[in-house]
Design goal:
The protein is built from 16 helices and 28 strands. It starts with 5 loop residues before the first strand and ends with a strand. 43% of the residues are buried. The strands form four sheets. It has an eight-stranded parallel β-barrel, surrounded by six helices. With 617 residues, it is of the alpha/beta class. About 2% of the residues have low confidence.
């Protein structure tokens, strides 16, 4: 008995239309891209025309384009955001990611709405509430474990999206106010100053330094490529790659890698999963995620709490580990590594780096002599990483990933000419019928010319000739027929088996409720991120009448500026569950940067760390 497959979406970031197309060509089933305004990455907005162009291209392969409209909004911005939602809908966007619930009070178009991870989607109750509101997909908090995701899935039917790769915010998304407090740049407004990537001193309760000028809050990047099947089994149907600020090289490499990982899962016997889009992928290179921007790897709480989530030495890309320095000469370094080096490679250690002018193997096995562009200040035994692989980068930039939609082509006869079918497009052409002198050659010529689809998004799956005779048809005529038929509209695959529910849901009307479901979250304070009166009304309708304004308005003294599942106590082996009272007297209590001091609060009951109001010391 056949069962309906589960369609799985590989979701890629798009800084712009060009990067979005590259992501689709590299195997993405969907991309998410910033709107001209009101996206959570203010630096990467895109025009409506660019989004229209990307949507037109994506839809050839049944790919989706989700647009980020996920900042919190001032009252005077709501009309512009609503108008923008309509423009995006008319441009072909398939759905909007939102954070501000004031938008649900507006006259939005009949377009899918996804709850951004900025909505702090961490519990069964919160996801149930969003589902009751008519939200059609929830982007889960990165901090959730597999068991927590399974629990959410077992109590809801809404689509679940989870991050699988890329940079990590140390605070729960939507609950970080440190950038706003220090720089006046709100993360909830799309202009985070990345306070988590700065140096800090770590102090005990008496102000004594425990660590000096370390990147205490700079997390490794997420990499869940080894656990994709577990996520699918837990009920996730959209696997998200972070990186709307990343370049095209990064996106092609990471998307290509995850496409291959997923396709291996889908190809297993009796696999219940299928790709959510169509088209054959030709990458043109072998993806290796450590070869583009890479801060190290963590599965980030997927299987519970672990140490070594952060890299206190550097917030920069470290790339791949090579080996150790074994000798330092006046103008050269000897490095023991099992990996080949190239002239032009970029190497690094701690938070410093240098380029390789020349690299040659020595007579000693696995030892390379490196002449750097400048002699770095390092020691024998130093660990060396490669954050730029010249050969890989050259390969990536000299190739082009290509995606082709296989279509069936058929040429048959009519009374006065011929009928050409290409995928779902059919055109009739009048032409005199002259029997070819060399029949086999003539038939082969027809097949060859009709299958030459060149730079179009299509490739010939089959070419069928339903002809009574081997007619002579000039090459120029066949080329013109092929060109005109393809230009007549988007050819569709004859074997389109994508999920019917997904196809129908792009323009599903928003659910209009007679009464709002009760908000499960408590307390109703600044963390609801209420920046406008529409959001205030919305939450009041959900039973939260005594709400507080967003931190961006109030700048509440004593507010938690970050709420983190990452814990410096656990990271340093000083978790209170495993230390003595004497050891706890020496535990960290403050962090300091640029003269500003913040208090660390360790909530062991909730198992979170909070960074609280700026202190004067």
């Amino acid at each position: 008995m056949s069962t309906t497959p589960t369609y799985i979406e590989l979701l890629a970031p798009a800084k712009n239309a060009e990067t979005g197309k590259a992501a689709i060509d590299s195997g993405a089933d969907a991309v998410y891209i910033g709107a001209p305004r009101f996206g959570a990455r203010q630096a990467v907005g895109n025009t409506i025309e660019d989004i229209r162009e990307l949507a037109d291209y994506a839809h050839i392969f049944s790919c989706k384009v989700w647009v980020t409209l996920n900042t919190i909004l001032h009252d005077d911005e709501l009309p512009a955001a609503t108008a923008l939602a309509w423009q995006l809908y008319e441009a072909g966007a398939d759905g909007l990611l939102i954070q501000d619930m004031g938008l649900l009070e507006q006259d939005l178009p009949p377009i899918r709405l996804h709850a951004s991870t900025q909505c702090h989607n961490t519990s069964v109750e919160k996801v149930q509430w969003l589902e009751q509101l008519g939200i059609q997909r929830v982007v889960l908090a990165r901090e959730l474990s597999l068991e927590e995701i399974k629990d959410i899935r077992s109590h809801t039917k809404v689509e679940l999206e989870a991050f699988v790769h890329g940079a990590l915010c140390v605070s729960y998304s939507g609950q970080c106010y440190l950038s706003e407090a220090v720089c006046g740049r709100s993360a909830n407004r799309g202009c985070c100053s990345q306070m988590c990537r700065q140096r800090y001193d770590l102090l005990d309760k008496d102000g004594k330094e425990i660590a000096h000028q370390q990147y205490l809050l700079s997390l490794h990047d997420m990499d869940r490529s080894q656990y994709l099947e577990e996520l699918l089994q837990a009920g996730v149907t959209s696997l998200k790659i972070e990186g709307r600020l990343k370049d095209t090289d990064y996106v092609r490499n990471v998307v290509g890698y995850y496409r291959q990982c997923l396709d291996r899962i889908f190809s297993q016997e009796n696999s219940p999963y299928k790709r959510a889009s169509q088209g054959n992928i030709y990458l043109g290179f072998t993806p290796q995620t450590e070869k583009t921007f890479h801060r190290g790897s963590t599965d980030y709480f997927l299987h519970g709490r672990t140490q070594h989530l952060a890299n206190w030495a550097t917030p920069k890309s470290t790339g791949e580990y090579l080996g150790k320095i074994v000798l330092i000469e006046r103008n050269a370094l000897l490095l023991r590594t099992g990996k080949p080096l190239h002239n032009g490679d970029g190497l690094c250690f701690a938070d410093q780096g240098f380029s390789v002018n020349t690299a040659v193997p020595t007579r000693e096995k696995d030892v390379w002599r490196i002449v750097p562009n400048r002699m770095p200040d390092l020691s024998i035994g130093e660990d060396i990483y490669r954050n730029t692989d010249k050969a890989f980068t050259d390969c990536l930039r000299s190739t082009r990933s290509v995606r082709k939609l296989p279509i069936d082509i058929c040429l048959s006869e009519t009374e006065k000419g011929f009928l050409l079918q290409m995928g779902g497009r059919t055109m009739e052409f009048r032409h005199e019928k002259t029997v070819a002198q060399k029949k086999e050659q003539a038939l082969q010529n027809i097949r060859t010319q009709l299958s030459k689809l060149g730079d179009t998004p299509y490739e010939a799956k089959s070419v069928t000739l339903q002809l009574q005779e081997a007619w002579f048809l000039p090459v120029s005529v066949l080329n013109e027929w092929r060109r005109r038929c393809l230009a007549s509209g988007s050819a569709m695959s004859d074997n389109d088996k994508r999920n019917a529910a997904t196809a129908e849901s792009s323009n599903r009307p928003i659910i209009k409720l007679s009464a709002r479901p009760a908000l499960p979250e408590q307390p109703h304070d600044y963390r609801l991120n209420i920046l406008n009166q529409a959001a205030k009304r919305f939450y009041a309708e959900c039973g939260a009448e005594d709400t507080e304004p967003a931190f961006e308005i109030s700048h509440d003294h004593g507010a938690a500026l970050m709420t983190c599942k990452y814990c410096i106590l656990y990271e340093t082996g000083m978790c209170r569950k495993h230390t003595t009272a004497d050891e706890r007297k020496r535990e960290p209590a403050f962090i300091r940067t640029n003269g500003k001091v913040f208090r660390l609060v360790f909530d062991c009951k909730e198992c979170v760390m909070r960074i609280v109001e700026e202190m004067r010391r």
